[in-house]
Amino acid sequence: MPYATWPPPSSAAIDAASNSGSSSLEMKEKSNLEKLISENAVIVFASKGCCMLHALRCLLLRVGLNPTVYHIDDDEVVEDLERIIGGDNYDGLWKFPVVFVGGKLFGGFEKVMMAHISGDLVKILKEARALWL
């Protein structure tokens, strides 16, 4: 089932996994984050209370998309995102929200807004099978 929803692991599950060994938790967490990105047509990573997230969600809702949002609450997720995107290109300045479309990094708020203004956003979302109309 493509683009299935996936809830982040509960704190109890993380605590239980940490007792069994940190290396297995680290590998499981990384694979879960990659799975989360690959299973959602559009996913947004943002910090809680981010005003740009609100603006981004309003824009995407206006074009007919209700994106999956993952709230960043610790630095480990940022490190995993660095690894997934390619840490060599990381300049140390993460600008949230970060948007993945079709399992690939699309960009931040500015890139989504530029695609909307140019008229390419709906086309990109249709190609990623996030929109059907």
Automatic annotation (TrEMBL):
Transmembrane intervals: none
Pfam families given in the database record: Glutaredoxin
Domain Glutaredoxin: 42-105
Database matches in PANTHER family: GLUTAREDOXIN
Protein's cellular compartments: Cytoplasm
Family assignment from sequence similarity: Belongs to the glutaredoxin family. CC-type subfamily.
Protein name from the UniProt record: Oxidoreductase
SUPFAM superfamilies cross-referenced by the UniProt entry: Thioredoxin-like
Keywords: Cytoplasm, Redox-active center
A GO-annotated cellular component: cytoplasm
Database matches in InterPro entries: GlrX-like_pln_2, Glutaredoxin, Thioredoxin-like_sf
